[in-house]
Amino acid sequence: MAILGTHRAFELDDPRLQPLLVPRLPDTPEHARVRQFIVHHYETLGWHVELDSFQDETPFGKKTITNVIVTHNPKAKRRLVLSAHYESKYFKDFEFIGATDSAVPCAIMMDIAQTLNPFLAKGKDHITLQMVFFDAEEAFVEWTAEDSLYGSRHLAEKWEKTNQLDSIDVMVLFDLLGFREAQITNYFQETSILYHRLEMLASRLAKQDLLETHSTKEDGQSLGSFFNSSSFLAFKGHYLEDDHQPFSQRGVNILYIFGYPDPYHHTVQDNASIIDPSVVRNLAILFRCFVLEYLGTTIK
């Protein structure tokens, strides 16, 4: 595992993160540039790239919504899916960046693909890594069943009709990550074994000194565990409205990596200043290792 922890910490100018730290309102030129940045990253790695583009009615009129789906081996029969939304929410009173929501999750996914790409090529043919960047998770005005989850609702329905949901082992959804105090609970009973596997993996990595123990921010505060299985949100994942919901309602297993609390959620403060690079690096290392172990890929 040591080789997976040798990459430098995520700094705020990290080439996988910095281009995402901009407003990313759906169907705008800035949003299109971010989408192309993501697409180019995976095309350079040699992954299969699919754009799931459609039009939908919103409170601001008809908008073009585009999910980005990237797959290491599209011929594989089974998939481990990592996912996050890549757009940011509209606020009329201020410019919203959405660093934790969800620029950091997208950057972590891009890091995983880049770091693991040489090892994935040596992996098993029957299972592959797929990543989905959902568009328009956020409500344009106020969260309702119609004004939210545009991209994930569309893709879940599309994949249900084409029987592609059946090949998903588990969908991992990242959201609200990068803030130091946020913790992750066990949101779904159905994936408890994977949640506890993550806990044990984090413990192993810490014992091998592969995780940062202190913040790289000015205060150098000690970093605690990512995990809090006794949270009041434990096993409440089915009731939480996020991009996993259209899939969980159709029987897909969900591992929900949702940071709580996040006091900066949907505020102007959710920008680069609240990101702790040590936290982001630790999450990236943890999920690099989790993915390799899940896929049964060895490092040689």
UniProtKB/TrEMBL annotation:
Residue intervals of the Peptidase M28 domain: 67-286
Enzyme Commission number: 3.4.-.-
Family: Belongs to the peptidase M28 family.
Single GO BP term: proteolysis
Name recorded for this polypeptide: Peptide hydrolase
Species this chain originates from: Phascolomyces articulosus
Keywords on record: Acyltransferase, Hydrolase, Metal-binding, Protease, Transferase, Zinc
Coiled coil: none
Keyword Transferase annotated: yes
InterPro entries listed in its UniProt record: M28_QC, Peptidase_M28, QC/QCL
Gene3D superfamilies xref list: Zn peptidases
Superkingdom, taxonomy of origin: Eukaryota
UniProt entry tagged with the keyword Transferase: yes
GO MF terms held by the record: glutaminyl-peptide cyclotransferase activity; peptidase activity; zinc ion binding
